[in-house]
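Weekly sync, protein design subgroup
Attendees: M.S., D.O., the rotation student, P.L. (late)

Item 1: inverse folding check
M.S. brought a backbone from last month's batch and wanted to see whether the design step gives back something sensible before we order anything. D.O. pointed out we never logged the input encoding, so this time it goes straight into the notes. Structure tokens as presented (209 positions):
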């Protein structure tokens, strides 16, 4: 079945410029349609500020990110991503594709830039993260629970009667969430917790003493 369509002279001249060899107008139009459809199947380009590994760490700590969505029609959309359920073990890109950018084809999204706002805490370094990983394990808290204490604690060395150099003490401040502290076994009345660190943990912990 052949369907005839009317196009004005300027449109036809634009089509003529796209002719390859002995292309018919139908062939040119089909090539344009194919190009458009292939473009839509290409996933949006993702970028992060700061770089991806640091972004995830700060996103988990702060729970929120700013996102700029660029669309096929040339427009852009500024949105906020609340990611309270993410953990440090989460697959960042997997969560983005299955959650935040679900339906990107229909929404016409071609790229997305994720950033942590400068108004949030950028001071949480990789060293802080490694320290909290160690301390959360010894306190038998989840990493997210420990981080929620917002570094409201003091870390010091603890020398036991036998002179063991691997002992440490954490003293939690009054401002700490009492519901989280209740989960720490052997926390004394002074809100102190004494533990023995492994030798490969000493260098990391000693940076904060």
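Designed sequence read out in the meeting:
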């Amino acid at each position: 079945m052949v369907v005839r369509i009317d196009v004005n002279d300027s449109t036809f001249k634009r089509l003529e410029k796209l002719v390859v060899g002995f292309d018919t107008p139908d062939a040119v139009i089909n090539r344009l349609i194919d190009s458009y459809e292939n473009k839509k199947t290409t996933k949006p380009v993702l970028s992060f500020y700061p770089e991806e590994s640091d972004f995830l760490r700060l996103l988990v700590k702060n729970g929120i990110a700013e996102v700029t969505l660029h669309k096929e029609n040339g427009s852009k959309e500024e949105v906020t991503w609340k990611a309270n359920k993410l953990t440090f073990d989460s697959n960042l890109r997997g969560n983005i594709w299955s959650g935040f950018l679900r339906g990107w084809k229909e929404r016409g999204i071609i790229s997305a830039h994720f950033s942590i706002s400068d108004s949030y805490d950028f001071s949480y370094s990789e060293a802080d993260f490694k320290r909290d990983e160690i301390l959360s394990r010894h306190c038998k808290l989840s990493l997210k629970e420990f981080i929620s204490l917002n570094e409201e604690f003091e870390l010091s060395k603890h020398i036991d009667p036998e002179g063991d150099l691997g002992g440490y003490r954490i003293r939690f401040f009054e401002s700490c969430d009492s519901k989280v502290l209740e989960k720490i076994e052997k926390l004394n009345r002074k809100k102190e917790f004494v533990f023995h660190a492994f030798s490969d943990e000493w260098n990391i912990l000693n940076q904060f003493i």
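Discussion: The chain has three domains: 9-40, 45-115, 126-206. The chain has a mean pLDDT of 86.
Action: P.L. to compare against the previous round before Friday.
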